[in-house]
Design goal:
The two termini are about 15 Å apart. This protein has two helices and five strands. It has one domain: Hypothetical protein (Metal Transport, Frataxin, Chain A). It is about 30% helix and about 30% strand. Keywords: Endonuclease, Hydrolase, Nuclease, RNA-binding, Stress response, Toxin-antitoxin system.
Protein backbone atom coordinates (compact mmCIF):
# COMPACT_ATOMS: atom_id res chain seq x y z
CA UNK A 1 0.00 0.00 0.00
CA UNK A 2 2.67 2.50 -1.04
CA UNK A 3 1.34 5.96 -1.86
CA UNK A 4 2.84 9.14 -3.22
CA UNK A 5 3.20 12.15 -0.93
CA UNK A 6 0.91 14.25 -3.14
CA UNK A 7 -1.85 11.62 -2.86
CA UNK A 8 -1.59 11.54 0.94
CA UNK A 9 -1.75 15.34 1.08
CA UNK A 10 -4.86 15.35 -1.15
CA UNK A 11 -6.54 12.79 1.15
CA UNK A 12 -5.76 14.84 4.26
CA UNK A 13 -6.92 18.13 2.75
CA UNK A 14 -10.12 16.50 1.48
CA UNK A 15 -10.84 15.43 5.07
CA UNK A 16 -10.34 18.97 6.42
CA UNK A 17 -6.68 18.88 7.48
CA UNK A 18 -4.66 22.03 6.81
CA UNK A 19 -0.93 22.76 6.78
CA UNK A 20 0.00 24.18 10.18
CA UNK A 21 3.80 24.08 10.06
CA UNK A 22 6.68 22.88 7.93
CA UNK A 23 10.20 22.18 9.09
CA UNK A 24 12.57 21.09 6.38
CA UNK A 25 11.06 18.09 4.65
CA UNK A 26 8.30 17.40 7.18
CA UNK A 27 4.83 18.95 6.99
CA UNK A 28 2.54 19.10 10.02
CA UNK A 29 -1.21 19.18 9.50
CA UNK A 30 -3.92 20.13 11.99
CA UNK A 31 -7.70 19.74 11.95
CA UNK A 32 -10.46 21.96 13.36
CA UNK A 33 -12.27 19.17 15.22
CA UNK A 34 -9.91 16.18 15.34
CA UNK A 35 -7.28 16.18 18.07
CA UNK A 36 -3.54 16.06 17.50
CA UNK A 37 -1.49 16.60 14.40
CA UNK A 38 -0.37 14.57 11.42
CA UNK A 39 3.23 14.67 10.21
CA UNK A 40 3.93 13.91 6.55
CA UNK A 41 7.52 13.49 5.33
CA UNK A 42 7.81 15.42 2.07
CA UNK A 43 10.89 14.39 0.11
CA UNK A 44 9.28 15.38 -3.19
CA UNK A 45 5.67 15.18 -4.33
CA UNK A 46 6.30 12.05 -6.42
CA UNK A 47 8.22 10.27 -3.66
CA UNK A 48 6.48 7.07 -2.59
CA UNK A 49 6.07 6.43 1.12
CA UNK A 50 6.52 2.93 2.54
CA UNK A 51 3.39 1.07 3.60
CA UNK A 52 4.12 1.42 7.32
CA UNK A 53 4.50 5.21 6.99
CA UNK A 54 1.21 5.43 5.07
CA UNK A 55 -0.52 3.31 7.72
CA UNK A 56 0.83 5.54 10.49
CA UNK A 57 -0.33 8.73 8.75
CA UNK A 58 -3.82 7.32 8.15
CA UNK A 59 -4.04 6.21 11.79
CA UNK A 60 -2.95 9.65 13.05
CA UNK A 61 -5.58 11.29 10.83
CA UNK A 62 -8.27 8.81 11.92
CA UNK A 63 -8.83 7.80 8.29
CA UNK A 64 -8.15 4.10 8.80
Amino acid sequence: MRKKVKDIIKMLEADGWYLKNQRGSHRQYSHQTKPGKVTVPDHGKNHELDHFVVASILKQADLK
